[in-house]
């Protein structure tokens, strides 16, 4: 009985209700593409029952940004009017329903402990990193058919890149995005905490997770993560006059750089190769992103105003791939080009307006977390169709309107 009373008091003190617990489940399972939709569905159903109780007063609030997001999703519905492949179009509409559900949810449900939500997310990301590393170590020590078992073998292609996240078949570009946002949350907390031991531990956590990014070979995430951490950390520590911590950070950076150069040279070489491929452009003989982007140009020119429609992009793009001797049959790996092909200049303009509105709001409200979140999404959209797969859709939808509408910088 006493334990039950203590638990009730704890939940009330931290503003935790059943709906909030389901939201915690959502932010903790982005990596699990089979389980995450269950939490989202349960969250919306439970909140729906709460809203329609006889004694519940619905306080539905919207703003300009809310309707901008609704218009962005509405492009999919409008695009169905002139698409040929209704099956693909309907699949896109249903996959991106989170773009509508979460703004609606946050318009009626007030998250009273966003700090706890963000901390829980950081813990979940760290938990997945440990799980991936332990699973990789298990495969290395007990499943390896190559000897001797040394560091060179462990950091070879057999245990890095996609092989590192094999436990849940997680795409490294998306998990890299999760790690970067985790670092932004950590840096925000680091800018406020007065406990030196906490700062040291958080810096060690960032270093460990950054080395994991290198091991995972998430190329875009590695480069952007380095820029975000170096710029943010230098600004925070100098502003707070924590010069001893700054010196420790420099030592930690040098040590991490040395370790990466000695043992993670495969990851470094892949980043270098990617940069060289981009410099060659569509003249490269490899099936690079630059060649895929080039193949999208004829599709865009044929339908530059309103695009091909919601469901016809893949067919038109793959036809161009065939003409340019590109054998892979994936998407264009660029969200901006995807919107341009799918919805034309009008669609791309609306897509960019969403980001512009986010950045302006983040700057006006001095919202470091939301500003970096938007930058992360924008940069990742250059190399992946981030908002075309569940891993990216739910991540963006869960945090975007919450950080815009409810998160206030203290």
From TrEMBL:
TM segment ranges: 16-32, 38-53, 65-83, 89-108, 120-141, 173-190, 197-214, 220-238, 243-260, 339-360, 367-385, 391-407
Start and end residues of each O-antigen ligase-related domain: 221-352
Record keyword Membrane present: yes
Main location: membrane
Keywords linked to the UniProt accession: Membrane, Transmembrane, Transmembrane helix
Pfam families to which the protein is assigned, alphabetical: Wzy_C
Membrane topology: Multi-pass membrane protein
Compartments reported by the entry: Membrane
Gene Ontology CC: membrane
Name assigned to this protein: O-antigen ligase-related domain-containing protein
């Amino acid at each position: 009985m006493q334990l039950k009373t203590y638990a009730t008091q704890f939940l009330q003190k931290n503003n935790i209700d059943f709906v909030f617990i389901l939201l915690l489940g959502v932010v903790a399972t982005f990596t699990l593409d089979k389980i995450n939709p269950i939490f989202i569905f349960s969250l919306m159903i439970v909140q729906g029952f709460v809203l329609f109780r006889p004694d519940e007063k619905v306080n539905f609030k919207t703003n300009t940004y809310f309707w901008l997001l609704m218009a962005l999703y509405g492009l999919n519905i409008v695009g169905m009017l002139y698409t040929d492949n209704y099956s693909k179009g309907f699949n896109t509409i249903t996959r991106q329903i989170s773009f509508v559900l979460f703004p609606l949810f946050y318009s009626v449900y007030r998250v009273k402990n966003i700090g706890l939500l963000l901390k829980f997310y950081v813990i979940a990301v760290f938990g997945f990193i440990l799980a991936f590393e332990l699973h990789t170590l298990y495969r290395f020590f007990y499943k390896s058919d190559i000897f001797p078992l040394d560091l060179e073998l462990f950091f070879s292609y057999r245990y890095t890149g996609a092989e590192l996240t094999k436990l849940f078949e997680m795409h490294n570009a998306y998990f890299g995005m999760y790690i970067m946002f985790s670092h932004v949350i950590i840096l925000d907390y680091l800018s406020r905490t007065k406990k030196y031991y906490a700062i040291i531990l958080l810096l060690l956590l960032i270093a460990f997770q950054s080395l994991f990014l290198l091991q995972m070979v998430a190329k875009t995430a590695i480069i952007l993560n380095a820029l975000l951490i170096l710029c943010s950390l230098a600004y925070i520590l100098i502003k707070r006059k924590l010069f001893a911590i700054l010196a420790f950070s420099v030592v930690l950076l040098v040590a991490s750089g040395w370790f990466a150069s000695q043992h993670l040279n495969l990851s470094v070489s892949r980043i270098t190769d990617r940069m060289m491929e981009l410099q060659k452009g569509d003249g490269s003989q490899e099936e690079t992103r630059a060649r895929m982007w080039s193949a999208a140009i004829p599709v865009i020119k044929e339908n530059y105003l309103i695009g091909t429609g919601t469901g016809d992009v893949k067919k038109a793009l793959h036809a161009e791939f065939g003409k340019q001797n590109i054998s892979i049959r994936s998407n264009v790996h660029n969200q901006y080009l995807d919107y341009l092909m799918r919805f034309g200049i009008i669609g791309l303009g609306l897509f960019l307006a969403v980001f512009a509105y986010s950045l302006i709001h983040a700057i006006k409200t001095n919202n470091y977390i939301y500003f970096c979140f938007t930058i992360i999404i924008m940069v990742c959209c250059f190399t992946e169709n981030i908002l075309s797969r569940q891993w990216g859709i739910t991540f963006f939808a869960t945090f975007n309107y919450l950080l815009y509408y409810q998160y206030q910088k203290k």
